[in-house]
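TICKET: design request
STATUS: open
ATTACHED STRUCTURE:
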């Protein structure tokens, strides 16, 4: 399996990019959000990839971070969500938005993605709510994967352990806050929901501020 691709962009289409890796071109399907960030033809790019194997086709799907790739795999585990629907959800919300929507049970945000109906959106939230904390704890969304030079362009197998880009400060704070709440004995689901809500209210908050805000949300009412 191909787990990561690094090379030079040959061209970009509406739903995919062709990346040249030492003379071999690989078609990688991406969300519109990723395509808008990846760069222009002639520039170097690197993407984590997931290979979809069917009887009549092989397709590569590309993601700037391992967290986004993991969300893609989880989204596709939901009945009625294929690769196209997964990319639509990730393109509309981004990995942080998907984490927040699922942790908060906000299926309306998921439904906002193109081609996603209310029943599918509800299934996504219901089936993945217990898995959101684990993905959030991976460190959240990171910036675009480090760009490789043309000389260093390689394809790496999925079994290899690629270097994970440094997480964005807010994502790192969410992961640390989630870990702290879990250590305090809160259930993963309720901790993830509180952290997601606190991060939504204050996106630039650091770890201590997120923990304080989440604890206030978890405090008994009345």
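STATUS: resolved
RESOLUTION: sequence designed for all positions
ATTACHED SEQUENCE:
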């Amino acid at each position: 399996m191909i787990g990561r691709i690094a090379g030079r962009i040959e061209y970009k289409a509406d739903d995919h990019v062709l990346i040249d890796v030492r003379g071999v071109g690989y078609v990688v399907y991406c969300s519109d959000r990723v395509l808008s960030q990846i760069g222009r033809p002639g520039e170097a790019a690197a993407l984590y990839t997931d290979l979809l194997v069917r009887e009549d086709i092989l397709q590569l799907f590309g993601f700037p971070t391992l967290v986004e790739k993991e969300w893609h795999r989880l989204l596709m585990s939901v009945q009625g969500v294929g690769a196209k629907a997964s990319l639509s959800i990730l393109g509309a919300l981004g990995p942080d938005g998907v984490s927040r929507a699922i942790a908060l049970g906000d299926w309306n945000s998921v439904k906002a993605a193109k081609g996603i109906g209310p029943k599918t959106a509800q299934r996504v939230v219901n089936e993945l709510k217990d898995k959101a904390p684990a993905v959030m704890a991976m460190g959240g969304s990171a910036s675009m994967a480090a760009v490789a030079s043309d000389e260093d362009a390689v394809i790496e197998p999925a079994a290899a352990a690629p270097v994970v880009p440094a997480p964005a400060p807010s994502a790192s704070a969410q992961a640390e806050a989630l870990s702290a709440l879990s250590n305090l004995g809160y259930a993963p689901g309720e901790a993830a929901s509180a952290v997601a809500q606190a991060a939504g209210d204050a996106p630039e908050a650091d770890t201590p501020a997120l923990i304080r805000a989440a604890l206030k949300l978890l405090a008994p009412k009345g």
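CLOSING REMARK: The beta strands are 2-12, 16-21, 24-29, 44-53, 58-63, 155-157. The chain has three domains: 2-65+143-157, 66-136, 169-215.
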